[in-house]
Design a protein that fits this description.
alpha/beta, Thiol Ester Dehydrase, Chain A, Rossmann fold, 8-stranded mixed beta sheet, 5-stranded antiparallel beta sheet, 13 strands, 24% strand, binds D-malate
């Protein structure tokens, strides 16, 4: 059962002269929702009982849309980091009537004792929020490389590591996680996205790849098939540069090997400026028409899902990803060295961000690579054409098994 969502009504005395919910009142509502949630769980006195008072160290609020008197807002609470003496909670407020995202916020707390010194976060709080948080029961939280990452792990067998693109999260692979049978599917939220920690600084392709290597270590996984979509492909290239001997196969989906051009780098900075000014919904507005083949965004459930994914992402993580993509190295030279790594290059045939011709060109530079276009998909085939994408991946994994040498007699 998930941590309870809390519904709170907006009152006129919380609004400004124009009748909009005032930004300062938001802080009160976020706080009330947190206490109410605790009241319905371990009790409002959970901190007092443990002699640990939660002091706010940092607050980040993204205001997405106006709230008005009488609106009922639904607040959801997620624990995105659980350290020894500190924890981070992400909260989302949506208008119940039309599901409009009104605001998202992130609060970093440090627990302090009566003497003003940091003390451990009460176990009960972590247990309540972690144990009851995940709608997806397969999502684990692991602290590796200095960050707490959320990772969905399902199935048994050969491991496939799904690496999502920007500005998305592990749920991009939701269908594949449920339906790609016969293998162990591992889909983390990269740092700064989804439910993973979102530090302010320190984002690069190297850091993402280091996170993934450390995550595989923590899961006890030696060898993997990497499956990276777009920015996930950039991360896969970096992983290959460092841990090539762990890679048994490679899927490059709607991605490219070249670095950003000067114009591309300027566009990253322009999007980062928009993100600072208007929040994550500005990124959703700018990117949605590019991401999907379907032009009718207002009626598409996939578009609604992607918009929710982007809007709920932490702004610090998206800004970090923009900088990491802007500064990534060119990986073209790597392609011709991949002769020993079975590679599938896959792309939506209607991808506007990285057109299918580019996928064909890239595949042409990888010895022995297979290229497949997914009909009717744009930049996000795992969501737009989930069954076709899964079938393609399934066939690719089966082809790897067919190539695997039979076990030596003594090893049977
Ligand atoms: C992605 O989907 O990860 C991004 O569109 C990649 C990019 O902007 O280069």
């Amino acid at each position: 059962m998930p941590v309870p969502a809390i519904d709170l009504t907006v009152y006129p005395d919380e609004c400004d002269a124009f009748g909009h919910l005032n930004q300062a009142s938001f802080l009160t509502l976020f706080e009330r929702a947190r206490w109410e949630m605790l009241a319905r769980g371990p009790g409002m006195d959970v901190f007092t009982r443990a002699g640990a008072w939660p002091a706010v160290r940092k607050t980040v609020v993204d205001y997405h849309a106006a709230g008005f008197p009488g609106d009922v807002l639904r607040f959801t609470q997620t624990l995105t980091h659980h350290g020894r003496t500190s924890f981070t909670m992400r909260q989302t407020a949506r208008r119940l009537r039309d599901d409009t995202l009104i605001a998202t916020a992130e609060f970093v707390f440090v627990c302090i004792g009566r003497d003003g010194k940091p003390v451990p976060v009460p176990d009960e709080v972590g247990r309540f929020m972690n144990a009851r948080n995940g709608p997806p029961g397969d999502v684990h939280r692991l602290t590796v490389n200095g960050v707490n990452l959320a990772v969905d792990v399902r199935g048994e067998g050969r491991c496939i590591l799904f690496i999502h693109g920007y500005p998305l999260d592990r749920t991009l692979w939701q269908y594949q996680l449920s339906h790609l049978d016969g293998c162990r599917r591992i889909a983390p939220d990269l740092r700064g996205m989804g439910l993973s920690d979102a530090p302010d600084l320190g984002y690069s392709m190297t850091t993402y790849a280091q996170d993934l290597a450390a995550l595989l270590d923590a899961l006890g996984v030696d060898d993997v098939v990497l499956c990276g979509l777009s920015m996930g492909g950039y991360v896969a290239f970096e992983f290959l540069r460092r841990w090539r001997s762990r890679v048994r196969g490679l899927v490059l989906m709607d991605t490219r090997a070249e670095a950003d051009t000067a114009e591309g780098r300027r566009a990253r900075d322009a999007q980062a400026a928009q993100l600072r000014e208007r929040g994550t919904s500005a990124v959703a507005d700018a990117m949605l028409p590019q991401l999907l083949a379907d032009a009718d965004l207002s009626h598409s459930p996939v578009a609604a899902r992607v918009r929710r994914m982007i809007s709920a992402a932490p702004a610090a993580g998206l800004a970090g990803a923009l900088a990491a993509m802007r500064d990534r190295p060119d990986s073209t030279d790597l392609l011709e060295t991949l002769e020993d790594i079975p590679t599938l290059v896959a792309s939506g045939d209607r991808d506007r961000i990285i057109p299918a011709d580019r996928a064909r060109e890239m595949a042409g530079l990888i010895p022995g690579a297979r290229v497949e276009l997914i009909a009717g998909a744009g930049h996000l085939p795992p969501l737009e054409r989930p069954a076709e994408t899964t079938a393609l991946l399934s066939g690719f994994l089966a082809s790897l098994d067919a190539k695997r040498p039979p076990p030596a007699a003594g090893a049977r």
